[in-house]
Predict the structure.
Amino acid sequence: MQYRQLGNSELQVSALCLGTMAWGEQNDRNQAFAQLDYALDQGINFIDTAEMYPVPARAET
């Protein structure tokens, strides 16, 4: 895995990011844990957990 320095910090983040926006909509909890385990095993330490983009998009009620 390639890593990049995060800004001026000493933190190193993976060049690849695991996006989690579809978790809970397109897969179940066990699949999400399996995906996370696989990503960590591959050296990914950059995980986008924002919930700003629901899939599929839906109106607030």
User: Anything to note?
Assistant: The first helix runs from residue 29 to 41. The longest strand covers residues 3-5. Helices lie at 29-41. Strands lie at 3-5, 12-14, 18-19, 47-48.
